[in-house]
Task: inverse folding
């Protein structure tokens, strides 16, 4: 007999079925026991006559197989239940569980949850976070494919660090010293010049930052895109706005149950995402919030306040801050007049979730900017040479998958939205 | 005026358009010049009156913008051409090109092509390889999503090597020693146990093998899947056969032009992919091919010969070899009687393109097998603990993206099907 998933039991009333999953919970009532079996699609109540079937040795979270008849359920909120004729343990739990996963919320510290990651995923609410995360990454790819983008896979072992040697993890690469890529920045730009024009990558990136905050992890998934033949950075922002709308739409449609379960405060864009010069934002914070400590950049408090301002004034949870000063941006950023750049950040409810902008496409200008930033152009030969043979005007952006998931769901610590955390204190599991 | 892509010019006869791309080729004919502009969608001939527009300074592969009228073409094989009214150089080539990319085939060594990767991608045939590669990775994800699999992203910086310390790249992780993941093996198994049941990952893997062959690179993309609640390894093979059919179908349908351009000898499965015990294959090679040097494994010549045998006898380019001996398989492989295992390889035209099988799901058996293989279970704590709390019977497989691309296309050196090669001699670009 083929396995039936819990979600398909409704269509099988009166039939014998074989179901498989984890023993979610047990409730005993005299000679009757109710076993709750959980598989990837849901939970079902199974009625056992304990005089006929011995359930003594079966511990919660063991993997079991049940055969029986599907009947309409007497319990409220349940459509069907199983009258068990046979119970088999496929994989017995012989160890004490470090936490209970069958409650609505896991009652354990984040650290214990992360340490016992496999178990914590079995909790419905935890699983829901990653269902939504998968929706985001899948929708990112889908949307961009629809816009003519191609998916690329670029090396993560690199000789040249994106920003020039800081905050990089070192790799022993045969007899050479190499690094883990901080971002696919160089490669995605090169792939624009390769004739692909529009590319995206969903891949691991590495930051050897040793500070330990709720916003940072040392290995994460970066959603990157880069496109050629743009007029300016506004084209990238226009694309991102449509992308964000698509993500939110898909989350609400494809993850309706998860959005409800997690009680998500769905992000609101409004008419359009407001755009504001960084200098203008700083001015508003100074005059209207009496925040006078900002100079040519925002701090986390500034990001929060300007988000509140925009929410009140424009009804949007998002704001594009533009024209970041040159000294705050990497060497490849396209300069604008007055020491500013053609770059932007997207702030969502007080947190930066995207950095993007137009890039320099002239070989000579890029080389000059490297020198200005104190970098040696010879260390960037592989990257620079792509600019020698016809690089279109281009730009792009990057979104941290774990961070956007956490911020959309109102999760404070990005580790909760990270499958397996890598930080200064954690290399396992 | 918005940019028009070359592929959409047909619908614009009589209209003024703005097109952008690379200067593919120039042909002069008295006062007239023909400029061929290439964008991501194709090449178009543009007619220039050189008395009105100076094209002297414009070098091949420069990025240009042309405005003009779309007219029906006089040239054969061309539907339309552009009567140029304006030409602008967006990005000038000021350097000698290291190779010509506008020929049918690039006349340069593989090494020069790889070194000048960005340029070589501009060649139609090179680009076609990666169009097909993208079709493979995209179809892999699509097929598995249709089968209830979820995409996962697992860490590539690991403390525990899959096979226990050999052939790993070392990473300096703050004050600890870590490694680059050889495969997502441990994590995909753990994610089965997490309740996701069916998972796949498309991600980078690392092998610090120092030998330099046409089949091996040191960083590649692995298409991994793992599924719970299987009966045995035959369920994995059954899934893979349907997956391979889906890949071939999509390649033929979605990459028709590329398949023709590269003159691909489309893989043939036949009625079904034949399955044969490894020991049986060795016996056939011994008795029918007089190949007597094989003991409990095939060498590359053996793989070629058994593929020829199967092609002749069953009309299939594929064969599943099953029941590899325990000493040839990793510790997590499910044992079978007589020192064999519930594992398989998929051989395609003489080359192994998949390794898979059922895994051990018992904590105690797995621990025992580690010890048998000379490994210390304590070094695998993060992995092993996932088996303590209910691990379903499960199995999976891995396919190297670059290798399957190369073998399907009849490309001998896997580097040709690798976007940016990482091998013992190459860390750049």
Result:
């Amino acid at each position: 007999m083929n396995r039936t998933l819990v979600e398909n039991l409704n269509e099988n009333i009166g039939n014998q079925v074989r179901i498989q999953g984890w023993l979610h919970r047990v409730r005993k009532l005299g000679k009757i026991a109710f076993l709750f079996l959980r598989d990837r699609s849901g939970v079902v109540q199974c009625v056992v006559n304990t005089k006929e079937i011995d359930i003594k040795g079966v511990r919660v979270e063991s993997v079991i197989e049940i055969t029986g008849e599907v009947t309409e359920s007497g319990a409220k909120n349940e459509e069907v239940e199983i009258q068990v004729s046979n119970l088999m343990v496929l994989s017995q739990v012989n160890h004490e569980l470090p936490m209970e996963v069958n409650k609505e919320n896991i009652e354990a510290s984040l650290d214990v949850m992360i340490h016992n990651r496999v178990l914590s995923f079995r909790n419905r609410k935890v699983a829901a976070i990653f269902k939504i995360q998968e929706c985001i990454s899948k929708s990112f790819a889908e949307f961009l494919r629809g816009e003519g983008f191609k998916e690329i896979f670029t090396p993560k072992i690199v000789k040249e660090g994106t920003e020039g040697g800081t905050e990089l993890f070192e790799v022993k690469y045969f007899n050479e010293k190499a690094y883990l890529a901080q971002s696919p920045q160089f490669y995605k730009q090169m792939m624009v010049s390769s004739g692909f024009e529009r590319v995206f990558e969903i891949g691991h990136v590495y930051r050897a930052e040793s500070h330990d905050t709720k916003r940072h992890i040392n290995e994460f998934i970066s959603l990157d895109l880069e496109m050629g033949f743009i007029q300016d950075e506004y084209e990238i922002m226009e694309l991102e706005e449509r992308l964000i709308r698509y993500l939110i739409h898909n989350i609400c449609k494809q993850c309706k149950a998860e959005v409800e379960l997690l009680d998500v405060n769905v992000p609101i864009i409004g008419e359009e995402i407001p755009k504001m010069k960084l200098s203008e934002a700083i001015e508003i914070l100074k005059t209207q919030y009496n925040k006078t400590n900002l100079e040519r950049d925002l701090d986390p408090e500034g990001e929060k306040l300007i988000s509140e301002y925009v929410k009140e004034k424009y009804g949007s949870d998002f704001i594009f801050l533009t024209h970041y000063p040159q000294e705050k941006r990497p060497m490849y950023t396209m300069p604008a007049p007055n020491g500013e750049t053609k770059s932007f950040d997207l702030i969502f409810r007080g947190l930066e979730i995207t950095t993007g902008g137009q890039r320099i496409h002239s070989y000579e200008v890029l080389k000059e900017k490297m020198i200005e930033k104190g970098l040696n152009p010879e260390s960037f030969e592989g990257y620079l040479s792509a600019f020698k043979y016809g690089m279109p005007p281009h730009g792009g952006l990057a979104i941290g998958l774990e961070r956007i998931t956490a911020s959309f769901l109102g999760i404070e610590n990005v580790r909760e939205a990270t499958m397996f955390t890598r930080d200064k204190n954690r290399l396992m599991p």
About this structure: The longest strand of chain B covers residues 16-29. Residues 118-417 of chain B form a domain with the BirA Bifunctional Protein; domain 2 fold (CATH 3.30.930.10).
